[in-house]
Amino acid sequence: MKRSILSMAIALASITPATSFAAQAVQTQTADEPIEKIQVTGSRIKRADFEGVAPVTVISAGEIANSGLTSIAEVLQSSIASSGGSLNGESDGFTDSASSVNLRGMGANRTLVLINGRRQASFPSAAGGTSNFVDVSDIPTAAVQRIEILTGGASAIYGSDAVGGVVNIILKTEYEGAKVAVKYNDPTQGGGEQLDLSYLQGFNTENSQTLVMLEYKNVKQIQTYQRDLFYSPAYYEDDEGETRWGAGPYGDASASSWASWVRDYDKVYTSDKYSPVDEAQCENLFGDKGVYTPVGKYDCYYDKYADRGLQSAYDRLNLVLSSTYDLNDDWQLYGMVNASYKESTKYKDEKGFGTYIYEDTASGALSYEKTDFDDYNKFQMRRRMEEYPGTRTYDTQNTKAAISFGIDGAIGDYELDVSWSSSYNKYEKQNHHMVKADALLDLVTFDPNDTDASKWYPNNKLTTEQAESLIGDSTKESDSSMHQLQAVFTGDLIELSAGTLAFATTAEWARESYEDTLDATTTSGGYIGMGGTGGKGDRDRVAIAGELQIPLLADITAVKSLELSAALRYDHYLDDSSVGGATTPQVGLMYRPIEEVLVRANWGKSFRAPDMHRLYAGITRSFGSTEYPHPTIPDEVYEDQYDGISSGNLNLTEEKGDFWNLGLVANITDNADLTLDWWNIELEGAVKTISTDEMLDDAAQYDQTGNYTSCDQMNIVGYLNEFDDDGIENLQCMRKGPINSAYEASEGIDASFNYLFPETAAGEFKLKLAASYLIKKEYQETLDSDIEEQTETDYFPKWKGKASINWKMEDFSATLAYYYTGEAKGTDTFTLIDADGEEYEEDDYTDTLGAYQTLNLTLSYSAPWDGKFTAGVKNLTDEMPPLYDERNDEHNSWPFYEEDNSSYSAVGRSVFFGYSQKF
């Protein structure tokens, strides 16, 4: 794992972090102009600057352009406030092509994402099959005016979801003239090329401003074979002199044993129970993907790594249409349409499967269930479907549309804003190259000498017709929507001796819904190795909220100003769940001993209604098993098999939490400012899915024997017992689902420093530093379990930082941006060597992933004809993700790095070029 040459020097600089100069996001005022008040994320009350009781980071459009980052998802995930697991469109089979942001490590589903201050429809397919979130992968970079990131709870202002914080992406609403832009990004290791095209046009009249933006983005895939660090296959000799094949960073990631192999348990058709293929058959079936190493019982293996996708390919088209119309000097109509369409392709290794099949000894009929026959022969097969035509992919189509409109104006000295917003998200997915279960039973034979041309012996090559009879597509169609009517009434109430008492009141009605549907074949288990469940539900919410900004003291000894901020909100859910209503308060103080220094403190309560899919997930049936000491035979293990049912849980209540922060903001000089914030978030009753063992350990709560006769009758989480033929009480069935149980907490310190150097003959320089230190990230499964420190067990980095130095001279500019993710500790199973030189395994052994740091360089030149040239290098030192220790059992598991951390990237160095032209 190489280190950047500049790593040590820049790591010292990253100890203090970088938020935006607020002045860049707001138009500069002269002494003779009235101070314009603006609404900043975290408050409905307009004020004169960005700083308030809660820390807000502002990322301007200029910063985004100079960062070298290629998407809004990357910009958000590079924020020092983003920690823990985030989706990057590659790692979650439920949400291919989608990306998320996770503030403070509290979960992507506990981060509220707004566009122009308005809620968006959740991604309709839940992450991991459980958690809803807002997809940020389809937000057009060209349309973004700025991003505001509020860290910490904000339920008193925004309601549910704002536990870890709020991301407010503010899109442009007006533009003078027109602009076309093109940008091309090319990774030096191959694959992953990106092309961005955008067109921006403004239409302005005396009373109206209209903006139209079109953006097209094309991204090519990156497959494992294109990255030497993660592939590099080779044959080698092991310690016993046996020839083996390996790939991956350490060369010991083994090929898949699911190539072609048959087991005839009863030796009905073969003299040997095992029937592997020979070297010629292996090559004939799998070509260069066949790996023949006659070690063990399989002999023929399959290279499963080469074709796997490290980055999906996609095409995306975005439209933004924004317009405002001045009715008169006091009232304005406004509206916006934001739409996108994205087609994504995730590359996969060819479908492999293994299954048991039973043959009726009387009739020769085949079944996957041995209970179908009185007497049977048992067979097992494993097979890669290399004969399937074309490349195996998962394809998705994601359509989004959001519309908002409203009226904003003055009623006397107050301001009223009434708006309606609707957003819709449709997600379609096709998993290609599935194996039809019924068709396989009709086709397969376990007699290698069967002369029936319509039958197929698994170690033989499939004909084109046979492959076509087996191949199928598993499909998913999901949609979600969010509708919201909102009224905000705000203004100044009265003048007090210390200043103006300001207020804001809010009334809201919202409805959200989703439907997640799988095709009938998948739902019924008709594809081997493919399952899942859908869900459907909707809920309404009504809310009222009030907020006050109260000046307490001003212009006295040691007090330039002292202000109290107070907010109270009540949300009530109208649905089938047990949430009902929730009240959340928030109180803050802002103290300025002098004009240049602000000390702030903020406390409040947060809540979060359960994810829609946690409530309304459909029923999934399965067969489970557990083991425990035999009740009547000493030293024996009793294997207990049961019918399992999983579904949503309408008995869930809201998750409840507390948060606080203490902070300092100081304008050290006219050219320098710094911030320092200490924050804490705690959440109780967090929703989790209960395990079998947890239920069995708490029989008083979960044993429903006698209350129901079957789990189908139950609408609660629990289990039923029965007696077997020997009179032993065991599990009949178990109904699993989410419950309110877990505890989570996050605490840390953020800091930033910004400095604008005095202008010199060599140009103007600007320095920005930002860092966050995670003091703790705790998780507790249940009240009776131990609290887990995730910075020691789950690879949560304690440090995250970024820094940039910007240079500008006349028409030339350059930015060097640095991104730092610190060491990450986790526990895994390690293979160790004892004093006798023998290997042994130890659970919960600590591994440490090295720091990950990248440098981006952006250069630009503004031509006199209103053109602008841009060029640069992203990840200048070609850093790759940190690797697990070679003794870690995860070290040879694809993709060979901690993919849950969205800061890590397997793209490597890339160069980019761009040009824009204004008209």
> Percent range for helical residues?
under 10%
Helix/strand/pairing class, anyone? mainly beta
**Largest β sheet strand count, sense and barrel closure:** 22 strands, antiparallel, barrel
The residue ranges in which pLDDT falls below 50 over 5 or more consecutive positions are: 1-32
What is the percentage of strand-forming residues? over 45%
Mean pLDDT: 89
Number of helices: 13
Structural shape:
globular
* Secondary structure tally: strands: 45
Distance between the termini: 48 Å
Radius of gyration: 30 Å
**Quaternary assembly:** single chain
Main features:
disordered N terminus; single chain; five-stranded mixed β-sheet; 919 residues; mainly beta
Structure description:
The protein contains 13 helices and 45 strands. It has a 22-stranded antiparallel barrel. Strands 1-4-5-2-3 form a five-stranded mixed sheet. By secondary structure, the protein is mainly β. Residues 1-32 have low confidence and may be disordered.
SSE layout and pairings?
Layout: H1 7-13, H2 22-25, E1 56-60, H3 61-66, H4 72-77, E2 111-115, E3 118-119, E4 144-151, H5 155-158, E5 165-171, E6 178-187, E7 194-204, E8 208-219, E9 222-223, E10 234-237, E11 243-246, E12 260-264, E13 274-276, H6 279-286, E14 290-292, E15 300-302, E16 309-311, E17 313-326, E18 331-347, E19 352-360, E20 366-367, E21 376-384, E22 393-411, E23 414-435, H7 437-443, H8 464-470, E24 471-496, E25 499-518, H9 520-523, E26 535-556, E27 559-574, E28 581-592, E29 597-608, H10 612-616, E30 620-629, E31 637-646, E32 655-669, E33 672-689, H11 692-697, H12 699-702, E34 718-723, E35 729-736, E36 738-756, E37 764-780, E38 788-789, H13 790-793, E39 799-809, E40 812-821, E41 824-833, E42 839-849, E43 852-862, E44 867-874, E45 910-918
Parallel strand pairs: 2-5, 31-35
Antiparallel strand pairs: 1-4, 2-3, 4-5, 6-7, 6-45, 7-8, 8-17, 9-16, 10-11, 12-13, 12-21, 14-15, 17-18, 18-22, 19-20, 19-21, 22-23, 23-24, 24-25, 25-26, 26-27, 27-28, 28-29, 29-32, 30-31, 32-33, 33-36, 34-35, 36-37, 37-38, 37-39, 39-40, 40-43, 41-42, 43-44, 44-45
